[in-house]
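The data are quoted verbatim for completeness:
=====
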Amino acid sequence: MAKWDLAIGLIFLTQTTVGLLGNFSLLCHYIILSFTEYRWRSTDFIHKHLIVANFLGLLCKGVPQTMAAFGQKHFLSDTGCKLLSLLHRVGRGVSIGSICILSVYQAVTISPGNSRWAELKVKAPKYLSPSIFLCWVLQTLVNIIFPIYLMSTLSAKNITNRKEFGYCSSVRHDKTSDSLYGLLLSFPDVLCLGLMLWASSSMVFILYRHKKRVQHIRKTNASSASSPESRATKTILLLVSTFVYFYTLSSIFQVVLTAFDNPSSILINVTAVMSVCFPSVSPFLLMSHNSKVPKVPRLWFAWRRNIRSPCLQKNM
């Protein structure tokens, strides 16, 4: 095995392992909270779907790329290659949809009561569940055609007009039709990115205006930096900026990868690394800005105490 293959394999292994552990820790956090008297927030529902989308991205892209980097390139059948590619695309689409819904919801939530969003502010929590489920359905419908021309590298050995992507291959087609199909696939992403940028700009403007209003107040609890809304907004802004950064890099490398008929393994691996960056990083961003996460041991002991107390009362 070449030194480059070993290095890229270790990068994939580290990235996938850290990402899976981070998302699993955040999932355990929500499972433990379900056994307590925790008052669920509307944004927690979106976080759970984001975790599921992250798992799809890591398991369907990070794990196969790790195996391919270590030399195991012929472990998938045609059906497995198509299924993993579809699930990865759906998970990626739901990630951008979840961040978009989260940013728009937070922008509406922190808007002033006398703004034009005041009426929507009350109804916004009711629209979260339908929006998330609609996102899953639309991403599945949009990406269901994507894996049709994909096949395993083992099945594609006798095909000369093919392009390899590590553990999968695809038959080359007319670049005009590929470009049109690429525009169709990228339209929902571009729409979500536009909504995210609009919502982020609105949140920054609202926070800045609120900070100016309370500058003359010296009480700490009145500070905009200490309010729950401000903390949640800053977390979402950090998520959005991180997503846009990694998504932009991933899209640039994806366009370059599509432009070449025979892309190098370096370009394929770097593109794959960029596509798995956000699912690996996002759970740590959520945990670092969530005041409830460090209290998980305390919540666990409280749950254990609640379970034991009826037994103690029965014995007494």
Remarks:
- Residues 218-225, 293-316 have pLDDT under 50 and may be disordered.
- The beta strands are 150-152, 162-164, 168-171.
- The longest strand covers residues 168-171.
